[in-house]
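dude i think i finally got it to work??
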Amino acid sequence: MQYEIKHLGKFKFVEEGEGEPLVLLHGLFGALSNFAPLIDHFKQTHRVLIPMLPLFDLSVLDTSVNGLAKHVQKFIEAKGLNKVHLLGNSLGGHVGLVYTLREQHKVQTITLTGSSGLFENGMGETYPKRGDYEFIRRKTELTFYDPKVATKELVDEVYSIVNNRLKAIKVIALAKSAIRHNLGDELQQVTVPTCLIWGKNDTITPPMVAEEFKSLIPNSELHWIDKCGHAPMMEVPDEFNKILDQFLDKHKG
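look at this
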């Protein structure tokens, strides 16, 4: 499904449906396709918004988790949103947590899936040589329990990012920022209802990460999805949407 990219000043975003705002934050290699089943399901009951995070457009100093959280803050202000339901995958979850710690009064709930912020396995110690398509294919497949979810289209998308020198530098900067910006000491300050939806076979943010989030965030609940990797909303969308439906229903504004 194609979604219309809307513009408001410097912001680019998708907006579908009506109801309480559900703001989706994508990860480092996130694309709209990652959220397609989620958008189609929740636009029936919510106002679904996806700000396009400026992963490759920020200045070198602002290419960080903090820089992206500021962008989200300004987007939510520009749209005049209040009591938002935030959902973030991978780096998007990390950005959502940083935003929530700053603007807790504007957040109704937060849902994290495969979120960074405590620990994550990235591309490994060495960044791939540009042009190594097979390496990128294998790494993309490792995101999922079922490697077939890593379609050629998805691999091509990741490959085009890491094969662009400037984008590759920005990806490394953001990945390093995520590792440095550990939230372990701050998570007890998150008081909003928090839903953790985790793939039992996530190798990037393994199950122990979900358990640590659960122990540190006071008002949190943890749901496992079996035979599922780092992006449950893509790999097992029906089960993911069912869990999220029940959680959002419980915490209506």
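The chain is about 40% helix and 20% strand.
im so relieved honestly
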